[in-house]
Design a protein that fits this description.
The protein is an alpha+beta fold. It starts with a helix and ends in a 5-residue tail after the last strand. The protein has 5 helices and 10 strands; from the N terminus they run αααααββββββββββ. A 6-stranded antiparallel β-sheet has the order 1-2-3-10-5-8. The longest helix has 19 residues.
Length: about 190
């Protein structure tokens, strides 16, 4: 079984489990997430590997981290995630990519991401649930952070905080690759 097959199987199993724990029907999850009922069925039957955007929408609708949606063992008090088990969630032909490094659920979903964005490349994100925040630290290059249509420059060594309940994007308008770390915090379901 390939890594992608294992990921597809974990996602199928965990989506069913969390949908059940939240007491959501297929229709209710579809309405809450904006993902079609048919796509949710395909994911739960491990017949498709959804896009990052679809996975984020489902995790947000369930108020869990993407890590929880993809992983099978969240019970340990201390959990070391080897580099080989980090999950590459987005990639482009230019070499840009984002990797979900680790996540937790104790007080609402909390995720740690590693990103690389090549010159001229970028990634857009739908709004997260109200009250969500993101912290970004740029280690190399110069990030153009776009939040609700306004662009902000975040140079190497600088960090940014923003409320992620609005559309946002990460772009590299410079000549050197952007290397950044990002933390996403989503409030727990009430």
């Amino acid at each position: 079984m390939t890594d992608l097959d294992q990921l597809t199987q974990s996602l199928a199993r965990n989506l069913k489990r969390w949908r059940g724990e939240r007491g959501l029907t297929l229709d209710a999850l579809a309405a809450r997430s904006g993902v079609s009922r048919g796509m949710i069925i395909q994911i739960e039957q491990a017949r498709t590997n959804p896009s990052v955007g679809t996975t984020v929408k489902l995790a947000d609708a369930l108020a869990i981290s993407i890590t929880t949606l993809l992983d099978h063992d969240q019970d340990a008090r201390v959990r070391v995630v080897p580099a080989t088990q980090a999950v590459r969630m987005w990639a482009t032909e230019a070499g840009s990519h984002s990797t979900l490094l680790v996540g937790a659920e104790s007080h609402g979903p909390l995720e740690l991401w590693g990103w690389r964005i090549e010159p001229g490349d970028g990634s857009e994100s739908d709004p997260h649930p109200p009250g969500s925040i993101e912290l970004v630290h740029v280690a190399a290059g110069e990030l153009t952070l776009v939040v609700d249509g306004a662009a902000y420059t975040v140079p190497a060594g600088a960090s940014a905080f923003f409320e992620a309940g609005t559309p946002h994007a990460y772009r590299n308008d410079g000549a050197a690759p952007v290397e950044m770390t990002m933390t996403v915090s989503v409030p727990p379901v009430r």
